Amino acid sequence: MEQPATLDWWLERAAAEFGTPCYVYFMPQIRKRGRHLREAFAQQFTISFAVKSNPNGVLLDRLRDVVDYLDISSAGEFRRALAAGWLPERMSFTGPGKTQAELLEVISGALGELVIESTREAIEANRIAARLKRRQKVLIRLSPTSIPKGFGDQMGGRPSPFGIDVEDCDEAILAIGKLEWLDVTGFHIYAGTQGLKADAAVENYASFLDIFKTVCRRHGIVPDKLIFGSGLGVPYHPSDVAIELERVGTQTVALFETLRGERRFRETKLILETGRYLVAEAGYFLTRVVSTKLSRGTCFAVCDGGMNHNLPASGHFGMALHRNYRMHKVGGGGPVERVNLVGPLCTSIDRLGCDVDLPRLNVGDIVALHNSGAYGPTASPVNFISHEPPLEILVDETGMVDVSDGARAA
Ligand SMILES: Cc1ncc(COP(=O)(O)O)c(C=O)c1O
């Protein structure tokens, strides 16, 4: 994603005005990405944002004019989204371990669609809906037998706690369809994430389409909604190449033509569910150098923000090997040197950068880690060693505002 021309000006100002460590989110970049996504798929997809990727309250509020729906994964996310002004009917609820209390809260709270992950969950939801005398729309989550190579994390294509295995789904769909208080209004698949290969993304969507067509025909379902887990990834590491979204879009839209030719799918809403692709590249994590040290020939810059504030950048969030995030020294300047960027924790796993080439770092300098707009503070062990949590700053057309939890939004 294109960086704003004045990126370092904003980052320097954010660090000076609010302090570090902090996350800085650029709302104009998120809006642009939202438009880009819609255009790439020729407006055929409406967009659902996965709250888990960034549940910041002010960001959720601003996203109301960027995306159409929210994908929530807990009652806590339901409450955050409501507090941010979202209508419950605009939300769908995924997650393999929904509790009775959560089901009660969302069904009585007029949730849009419950995404059913097992027959057991459906029976439980039906019992609660009956007790409340409220019909509940449900989408059945299916788990494909295979997914193409090229996704950083796989939720399908192997034994999985997510959704109903497609090879066993007929019996489950029949059973769920008979439950009196549930209305099956469509299907959902999220099989893999962090994909950077266009061909794999298209093949993935084509396989979802085949599954959706087969189950709808076989069970005589005219779906209101079909949710496609986007799987679209972002170039976290310097050697990563961004996915060619236009190519994914053109080839996927061509697949939709055959779907629209069939009457049962003519009015169906096709929804792209995405988190990181919308927000990751619009966010930067700023950490300030507190100390520098040369130890046995190796240069260390010890920073005020580390793994406790940005776990994914430390390589401990589902990465098999540590690979450095893209990063730069804010303001640049100085000869390039190889450095190890570490955080404030007393553990050797608190590393944000191994052997990174950066302009010389001195005490007080700020390093910006890119791709930090998704899976940031809430995906990090912020309580570990009781440092202050990171701040969250949002840059919008009107200026810059502290949107950290508990901060007063402009
Ligand atoms: C059901 C579901 N929806 C959405 C997402 C968001 O994924 P991403 O942020 O990679 O787009 C995930 C990620 O795990 C997921 O499991």
Please write out the topology.
Blueprint: H1 7-18, E1 22-26, H2 27-40, E2 45-50, H3 57-62, E3 69-72, H4 75-83, E4 91-93, H5 100-108, E5 113-116, H6 119-132, E6 136-143, E7 151-154, E8 164-165, H7 169-177, E9 182-189, E10 192-195, H8 198-219, E11 225-229, H9 245-260, E12 269-274, H10 276-279, E13 283-295, E14 298-303, H11 311-314, E15 327-329, E16 336-342, E17 351-359, E18 366-369, E19 391-396, E20 399-402
Helix pairs in contact: 5-6, 8-9
The structure holds pyridoxal-5'-phosphate (PLP).
The secondary structure category is alpha/beta
Dominant shape: elongated
Distance between the termini: 26 Å
Number of structural units classed as domains: 2
CATH class of the largest domain: Alpha Beta
Low-confidence stretches: none
Q: Considering DSSP H and I runs of 4 or more, what fraction of the residues is helical?
A: 25-40%
CATH superfamily of the largest domain: Alanine racemase
CATH fold field value of the largest domain: TIM Barrel
Q: Tell me the β content.
A: 25-35%
Please state the average pLDDT score: 95
Q: Can you summarize the main beta sheet?
A: 9 strands, mixed
Helical segment count: 11
Cofactors and ligands present?
A: pyridoxal-5'-phosphate
Radius of gyration: 22 Å
Proper CATH architecture of the largest domain: Alpha-Beta Barrel
Give the tally of β-strands: 20
Cofactor: pyridoxal 5'-phosphate
GO molecular function: diaminopimelate decarboxylase activity
InterPro entries: Ala_racemase/Decarboxylase_C, De-COase2_N, Orn/DAP/Arg_de-COase, PLP-binding_barrel
Protein name: Orn/DAP/Arg decarboxylase 2
